Amino acid sequence: MAGNKPVVFIDGEAGTTGLGIRTRLDALPAVALTTVPAALRKDKAARRDAMAEADLVVLCLPDDAAREAAALADGLGRAAPKLLDASTAHRTDPDWTYGFPEMAPRQPEKIATAPRVANPGCYPTGAIGLIRPLVEARLVPADYPIAINAVSGYSGGGRSMIEAHDRDGGPAFELYALGLEHKHVPETQLYSGLTRRPIFVPSVGHFRQGMLVSVPLHLETLPGKPSAADLHDALAAFYRGCEYVRVVQPSADGKLEPQALNDTNRLDLYVYGNEARRQAVLVARLDNLGKGASGAAVQNICLMLGLDIANRG
Hints:
By secondary structure, this protein is of the alpha/beta class. Helices cover 32% and strands 21% of the residues. The strands form 2 sheets. A 7-stranded mixed β-sheet has the order 8-9-7-10-13-12-11. Strands 2-1-3-4-6-5 form a 6-stranded parallel β-sheet, sandwiched between helices. α1 (16-26) crosses α9 (290-305) and α5 runs parallel beside α7 (185-192).
C-alpha cells in the first residue's frame, strides 16, 4: 500500500494494452502506480522489486514472458502480489480465474477473491458474450457447429501491425488465421460452454480500433425452433442489470459499424433476424482496446482490489 492506496505495477507497460491500462489508472485517484525505469524494464531484479512493492501486478507481456513473470511473482512467497495477466498464457488454466465479470452471476465475486486472474481476449469477449447465455438457456446445443466471424481495428494486431498501417496505410481489409488455429479459440470454446470446436475466421480492417463479432444461425436447426426474438429475450434476461453489457434492438437498415463504442468499456449485443428465411445473426460490438483489453483489465483491477469504483471500470 502507498498510504491508503493499493499499488499497481504494470509489467510491460510500454505496449498497446499496457499504455491503455496506465492511462485509465492514471485517472483513478484510488490507485497508486509503481514502475521501473525504461532502461530496467527487462531487468529481473528491478521487476521483482517492483512486484514486491505492489498489491497487484498486471502482466502485459508475450505468453512465454508472462509465464516467467508469474513464476517470478510466485517466488516472493507470502509477499506475492495478486496477478492479472493480459496475455493468452493462462486463460484456460484452471488455477486462474477468467476475468469476464458478466460471464456468470457469481463471476465478479470469483474475480474479487482470486489471486490470479486472466484477462479475456477481445474476440472471445464478444463471442462468449453472445453464445454462452444461449447455450445455458438450451436454445443453442453445446455441440452445435458454431461459426464465428469477426473484424477488428488494426490496433489489435500489436505494434508491428499498428506501425505498418500508420506508415503505409495497410490493406483496406484482410482475412487472417485461415489455418483455423487462432489462439483465441480454446478460451472461446471453453467459456462459451461448447463441446464442439467452433470455426473462427478473424479479419482486420484499416481503422485503428473497434470490433464486430458475428455468429450466423439457422433457426430451424436449433432445439424448439426459436425465433430471433426468443434469442434476443434470452440474452436480455441474462444481462439484465449489467452496467457494461447491453442487449440492443437492431436498426431497421440492417447495418452496423464497428467504431461506435471506441474508448468505452461497453459491450453491445444484437440479434438480427429474418423470420421468413428462419435465419439469424448474433452480433457483438465492442472496442478491442476497451472492453476487449484495457477497459476490461481496469474493471478487473477494481474488483480484485476491492475498490468502491469496482463497478465503474
